[in-house]
Amino acid sequence: MKTIIVPTDFSPAAINAMHYALHMAQVVNAGIVLLHVYQLPVSYNNSDIPLPLMDIGELEKINEERLQELKGLAERTSPGALQIAAEVKLGDLADELEAMCAAIQPFAVVMGTRGSGFVERLLVGSATLSVIRRLTWPVLVVPPGTIFKGIQKIGFACDFKKVVETTPAGYIKEWVKIFGASMSVLNVDDKKNTATGNTKQQYDLLQGLLEETRPQYFFIDNPDVEKGIYEFAESNNLDLLIVIPRKHRLLDSLFQKSHTRDLAFHSHIPILAIHEAE
Q1: DSSP 3-state assignment of 223?
Q2: Half-sphere CA count of 275, side-chain side, radius 13 A
Q3: Which of 53, 137, 183, 236 has CA 20 to 30 A from 152's CA?
Q4: How far apart are CA 105 and CA 54, in angstroms?
Q5: Contact 242, 157 (CB under 8 A)
Q6: What DSSP character marks residue 23?
Q7: How far lies 185's CA from each of 139, 152, 273, in Å?
Q8: Per-residue pLDDT tens for 234-273?
């Protein structure tokens, strides 16, 4: 059976991602593992020696109780009979997730991002981005308020550079097949050279890699790559956007609001981050 890992900090954004994962798990026949990772709060009191602000046993008990409550909510609201487990860990979120993924080999890690308040956005966003940069397993980032309604349209943002070495073709084909989705490959380029030179060669190679997904190719003229991709995703009602973390600033734009990032900030489209092929 497949497994979906759902890290949670009990925030509204994380709980929404859990509900998204529960519905997705029903479709792909997967079990759910809820994971809460906490750290011991400390104070330095004008010294270099950290002093715990709370008894570790008491803190562990509180977190265990909160996670069991969340598990109960998951079981009550699950769309079907799902195997749901819950684990509490003391440590660093990325470290603990990396260890769990190595042991479980999950179908995906599903995380929320961006709460309603500034502090929540900062904390949830930074944690999610840290996980994406570290994990080599697929990480699905679910924006707040996004409800799982099936995945019928998948987009893949591609820059047509070293596609054989960098395209996670196996993962892409698996997701397209499991959900019976249509596939769009998006390339944003304001130089209008998509049909000539090296790009044409890379295009032919990518066609061979993804042939069984029967993708459509879209070449978008926009000087802002991230904005061009998001505009296409929104206007074409994509259900999922696949990105390679090292190739696009899309993921950073989810967490850092700047002069051209408002569209990303308000996007409701889940992003599946998959690292380059090995």
Answers
A1: coil
A2: 9
A3: 137
A4: 34
A5: yes
A6: H
A7: 19, 14, 15
A8: 899 999 999 887 755 555 554 554 433 443 445 688 989 8
Cα 151 to chain center, whole Å? 14
Is 190 within 8 Å of 204 (Cβ atoms)? no
Please provide the average confidence, as pLDDT, over all residues in the chain: 82
Q: Point out which residues pair with 157 in neighbouring strands.
A: 186
Locus of tokens 């047509």: 160
Q: How many CA atoms lie within 13 A of 24 on its CB side?
A: 30
Helix and strand numbers (H, E) in the chain are 10, 12
Q: The domain 2-142 is classified under which CATH number: 3.40.50.620, 1.20.1050.10, 1.25.40.10, 3.40.50.970?
A: 3.40.50.620
pTM to 2 decimal places = 0.85
Please state, in angstroms and as integers, the Cα–Cα distance from residue 110 to each residue in 174, 262, 273, following that order: 17, 23, 10
- Specify the range with the lowest mean pLDDT, choosing from 40-49, 106-115, 187-196, 218-227: 40-49
- What tokens appear for 37 in the block? 């990772």
Q: Region of 160 please: left (phi>0), alpha (psi -120 to 50) or beta.
A: left
* CATH 3.30.300.30 is the classification of domain 153-273: no
For CATH 3.40.50.620, list the domain ranges present in the chain: 2-142, 153-273
Alpha helices in 140-236, H assignment, sequence order: 163-166, 169-179, 197-209, 225-235
Q: How many CB atoms lie within 10 A of CB 135?
A: 21
**Contact status, residue 272 vs residue 233, Cβ threshold 8 Å:** no
- pLDDT tens digit sequence for 84-110: 999 999 999 999 999 999 999 999 999
CA distances in angstroms from 70 to 8, 10, 63, listed in the order given: 9, 8, 11
